[in-house]
Amino acid sequence: DTGVSQDPRHKITKRGQNVTFRCDPISEHNRLYWYRQTLGQGPEFLTYFQNEAQLEKSRLLSDRFSAERPKGSFSTLEIQRTEQGDSAMYLCASSLVKGKGVFKAFFGQGTRLTVV
Amino acid sequence: AQKVTQAQTEISVVEKEDVTLDCVYETRDTTYYLFWYKQPPSGELVFLIRRNSFDEQNEISGRYSWNFQKSTSSFNFTITASQVVDSAVYFCALSGSGGSNYKLTFGKGTLLTVNP
After folding, report:
1. With an 8 Å Cβ cutoff, are B31 and A44 in contact?
2. Which residues contact B106 (CB under 8 A, 6 or more apart)?
Protein backbone atom coordinates (compact mmCIF):
# COMPACT_ATOMS: atom_id res chain seq x y z
CA ASP A 1 0.00 0.00 0.00
CA THR A 2 1.84 3.04 -1.27
CA GLY A 3 -0.95 5.47 -0.47
CA VAL A 4 -2.41 8.18 -2.68
CA SER A 5 0.20 10.24 -4.47
CA GLN A 6 -0.22 13.59 -6.18
CA ASP A 7 2.03 15.43 -8.56
CA PRO A 8 3.22 18.13 -8.49
CA ARG A 9 3.16 19.13 -4.83
CA HIS A 10 3.41 22.80 -5.68
CA LYS A 11 2.60 24.76 -8.82
CA ILE A 12 2.98 28.46 -9.47
CA THR A 13 1.46 29.70 -12.69
CA LYS A 14 0.61 32.97 -14.34
CA ARG A 15 -3.00 33.96 -14.74
CA GLY A 16 -4.41 32.69 -17.99
CA GLN A 17 -2.16 29.65 -18.24
CA ASN A 18 -3.39 26.05 -18.19
CA VAL A 19 -2.31 23.63 -15.49
CA THR A 20 -2.71 19.89 -15.04
CA PHE A 21 -2.44 17.86 -11.86
CA ARG A 22 -2.10 14.12 -11.51
CA CYS A 23 -3.37 11.74 -8.85
CA ASP A 24 -2.42 8.09 -8.43
CA PRO A 25 -4.88 6.36 -6.11
CA ILE A 26 -4.37 3.25 -4.02
CA SER A 27 -4.29 0.50 -6.62
CA GLU A 28 -7.36 -1.53 -5.68
CA HIS A 29 -9.59 1.47 -4.99
CA ASN A 30 -12.50 1.93 -7.38
CA ARG A 31 -13.45 5.47 -6.40
CA LEU A 32 -11.40 8.59 -6.84
CA TYR A 33 -12.35 12.04 -5.58
CA TRP A 34 -11.07 15.55 -6.12
CA TYR A 35 -11.48 18.20 -3.44
CA ARG A 36 -10.41 21.82 -3.24
CA GLN A 37 -9.28 23.49 -0.05
CA THR A 38 -8.80 27.23 0.33
CA LEU A 39 -7.01 28.86 3.21
CA GLY A 40 -8.81 28.47 6.50
CA GLN A 41 -11.53 26.27 5.08
CA GLY A 42 -12.28 22.58 4.98
CA PRO A 43 -11.95 20.66 1.73
CA GLU A 44 -14.87 21.01 -0.68
CA PHE A 45 -15.98 18.26 -3.02
CA LEU A 46 -15.34 18.86 -6.73
CA THR A 47 -15.94 15.58 -8.54
CA TYR A 48 -15.63 11.82 -8.29
CA PHE A 49 -15.07 8.79 -10.46
CA GLN A 50 -16.31 5.25 -10.13
CA ASN A 51 -13.64 3.38 -12.04
CA GLU A 52 -13.31 5.39 -15.29
CA ALA A 53 -16.76 7.00 -15.17
CA GLN A 54 -17.13 10.53 -13.84
CA LEU A 55 -20.40 10.30 -11.92
CA GLU A 56 -20.81 13.65 -10.24
CA LYS A 57 -19.50 17.17 -10.59
CA SER A 58 -19.97 19.92 -8.06
CA ARG A 59 -21.24 23.34 -9.13
CA LEU A 60 -17.82 24.53 -7.97
CA LEU A 61 -16.36 22.88 -11.05
CA SER A 62 -16.67 25.55 -13.72
CA ASP A 63 -16.31 24.92 -17.44
CA ARG A 64 -12.62 25.71 -17.15
CA PHE A 65 -12.09 22.58 -15.08
CA SER A 66 -11.96 19.09 -16.53
CA ALA A 67 -11.08 15.80 -14.93
CA GLU A 68 -10.37 12.41 -16.42
CA ARG A 69 -9.61 8.96 -15.18
CA PRO A 70 -8.66 6.89 -18.20
CA LYS A 71 -8.78 3.13 -17.62
CA GLY A 72 -9.91 3.67 -14.06
CA SER A 73 -6.41 4.14 -12.74
CA PHE A 74 -4.72 7.54 -12.30
CA SER A 75 -6.66 10.76 -12.73
CA THR A 76 -5.83 14.21 -14.05
CA LEU A 77 -7.42 17.53 -13.20
CA GLU A 78 -6.89 20.32 -15.70
CA ILE A 79 -7.66 23.98 -15.16
CA GLN A 80 -7.75 26.14 -18.27
CA ARG A 81 -7.20 29.89 -18.30
CA THR A 82 -6.36 29.98 -14.60
CA GLU A 83 -7.63 32.83 -12.46
CA GLN A 84 -6.34 34.08 -9.13
CA GLY A 85 -9.41 32.61 -7.46
CA ASP A 86 -8.21 29.16 -8.48
CA SER A 87 -5.36 29.41 -5.98
CA ALA A 88 -5.96 26.60 -3.51
CA MET A 89 -4.85 23.17 -2.40
CA TYR A 90 -6.24 20.46 -4.66
CA LEU A 91 -6.65 17.19 -2.82
CA CYS A 92 -7.20 13.76 -4.27
CA ALA A 93 -8.70 10.88 -2.33
CA SER A 94 -9.50 7.28 -3.13
CA SER A 95 -11.66 4.63 -1.54
CA LEU A 96 -12.96 1.14 -2.09
CA VAL A 97 -16.73 1.15 -2.16
CA LYS A 98 -18.64 -2.11 -2.44
CA GLY A 99 -22.41 -1.80 -2.39
CA LYS A 100 -23.38 -0.43 0.99
CA GLY A 101 -20.19 -1.58 2.57
CA VAL A 102 -17.62 0.23 4.56
CA PHE A 103 -16.42 3.55 3.22
CA LYS A 104 -13.12 5.14 4.14
CA ALA A 105 -11.32 7.73 2.04
CA PHE A 106 -7.55 8.08 1.95
CA PHE A 107 -6.10 11.40 0.89
CA GLY A 108 -2.95 12.40 -0.92
CA GLN A 109 -0.71 15.27 0.17
CA GLY A 110 -2.34 17.63 -2.28
CA THR A 111 -1.14 20.01 -4.98
CA ARG A 112 -0.87 23.60 -3.88
CA LEU A 113 -1.67 25.94 -6.78
CA THR A 114 -0.71 29.59 -6.73
CA VAL A 115 -1.91 31.77 -9.58
CA VAL A 116 0.00 35.05 -9.88
CA ALA B 1 -28.19 19.00 2.37
CA GLN B 2 -25.47 17.99 4.76
CA LYS B 3 -23.63 20.34 7.03
CA VAL B 4 -20.82 20.05 9.57
CA THR B 5 -20.13 22.77 12.11
CA GLN B 6 -16.91 23.05 14.08
CA ALA B 7 -17.54 26.08 16.24
CA GLN B 8 -14.00 26.26 17.61
CA THR B 9 -11.73 27.94 15.10
CA GLU B 10 -8.59 27.75 17.21
CA ILE B 11 -7.66 26.12 20.50
CA SER B 12 -4.40 26.56 22.35
CA VAL B 13 -3.39 24.32 25.25
CA VAL B 14 -0.30 23.49 27.22
CA GLU B 15 1.23 20.06 26.84
CA LYS B 16 -0.42 17.33 28.98
CA GLU B 17 -3.74 19.14 29.11
CA ASP B 18 -6.85 17.34 27.86
CA VAL B 19 -8.65 19.00 24.97
CA THR B 20 -12.04 18.38 23.34
CA LEU B 21 -12.83 19.36 19.77
CA ASP B 22 -16.52 19.84 19.06
CA CYS B 23 -18.40 18.72 15.96
CA VAL B 24 -22.10 19.13 15.22
CA TYR B 25 -23.64 17.77 12.04
CA GLU B 26 -26.86 17.99 10.06
CA THR B 27 -28.16 15.35 7.67
CA ARG B 28 -31.45 13.88 6.51
CA ASP B 29 -29.90 10.50 5.80
CA THR B 30 -30.76 7.68 8.16
CA THR B 31 -27.49 5.93 7.39
CA TYR B 32 -24.39 8.05 7.40
CA TYR B 33 -20.74 8.06 8.40
CA LEU B 34 -18.81 10.47 10.57
CA PHE B 35 -15.08 11.01 10.35
CA TRP B 36 -12.24 12.87 11.95
CA TYR B 37 -9.15 13.77 9.97
CA LYS B 38 -5.91 15.41 11.08
CA GLN B 39 -4.08 17.81 8.78
CA PRO B 40 -0.52 18.56 9.88
CA PRO B 41 1.45 21.40 8.24
CA SER B 42 2.58 19.01 5.49
CA GLY B 43 -0.99 19.16 4.15
CA GLU B 44 -1.98 15.52 3.95
CA LEU B 45 -5.29 14.61 5.55
CA VAL B 46 -4.68 11.75 7.95
CA PHE B 47 -7.64 9.50 8.71
CA LEU B 48 -8.30 9.12 12.45
CA ILE B 49 -11.68 7.46 12.82
CA ARG B 50 -14.93 6.54 11.07
CA ARG B 51 -18.23 5.86 12.82
CA ASN B 52 -21.46 4.79 11.23
CA SER B 53 -24.81 6.11 12.35
CA PHE B 54 -25.92 2.79 13.80
CA ASP B 55 -23.06 2.52 16.24
CA GLU B 56 -23.22 5.01 19.08
CA GLN B 57 -20.66 3.26 21.17
CA ASN B 58 -17.90 5.60 22.21
CA GLU B 59 -14.42 4.66 21.14
CA ILE B 60 -10.99 5.03 22.67
CA SER B 61 -7.73 4.63 20.83
CA GLY B 62 -4.71 5.41 22.97
CA ARG B 63 -4.92 9.08 23.93
CA TYR B 64 -7.81 9.68 21.52
CA SER B 65 -11.47 9.17 22.31
CA TRP B 66 -14.68 9.99 20.49
CA ASN B 67 -18.13 10.69 21.86
CA PHE B 68 -20.95 10.13 19.35
CA GLN B 69 -24.37 11.34 20.47
CA LYS B 70 -27.13 11.01 17.92
CA SER B 71 -29.62 12.86 20.15
CA THR B 72 -27.57 16.04 19.88
CA SER B 73 -26.06 15.31 16.42
CA SER B 74 -22.59 15.61 17.85
CA PHE B 75 -19.37 13.71 17.35
CA ASN B 76 -16.78 15.20 19.67
CA PHE B 77 -13.11 14.29 19.80
CA THR B 78 -10.99 14.34 22.95
CA ILE B 79 -7.22 14.18 23.16
CA THR B 80 -5.99 13.18 26.60
CA ALA B 81 -2.61 14.37 27.82
CA SER B 82 -1.96 16.40 24.69
CA GLN B 83 1.49 16.49 23.12
CA VAL B 84 3.23 19.01 20.88
CA VAL B 85 2.96 16.53 17.99
CA ASP B 86 -0.83 16.80 18.23
CA SER B 87 -0.61 20.34 16.88
CA ALA B 88 -2.53 20.35 13.59
CA VAL B 89 -5.85 21.28 12.02
CA TYR B 90 -8.55 18.74 12.81
CA PHE B 91 -11.52 18.26 10.52
CA CYS B 92 -14.81 16.58 11.24
CA ALA B 93 -16.57 15.23 8.16
CA LEU B 94 -19.85 13.59 7.21
CA SER B 95 -20.79 11.22 4.42
CA GLY B 96 -24.04 9.66 3.33
CA SER B 97 -24.14 6.07 2.19
CA GLY B 98 -25.02 4.45 -1.09
CA GLY B 99 -24.32 5.58 -4.63
CA SER B 100 -23.15 9.14 -5.00
CA ASN B 101 -23.55 9.82 -1.29
CA TYR B 102 -20.11 8.45 -0.57
CA LYS B 103 -18.49 11.86 -0.56
CA LEU B 104 -17.34 13.92 2.38
CA THR B 105 -18.73 17.17 3.68
CA PHE B 106 -16.16 18.81 5.92
CA GLY B 107 -16.37 21.34 8.68
CA LYS B 108 -14.08 24.36 8.60
CA GLY B 109 -11.61 22.73 10.92
CA THR B 110 -10.17 23.50 14.35
CA LEU B 111 -6.54 24.58 14.62
CA LEU B 112 -5.07 22.96 17.72
CA THR B 113 -1.82 24.32 19.06
CA VAL B 114 -0.15 22.41 21.87
CA ASN B 115 2.53 24.45 23.56
CA PRO B 116 5.43 22.88 25.46
Report:
1. no
2. A42, A43, A44, B4, B37, B91, B92, B93
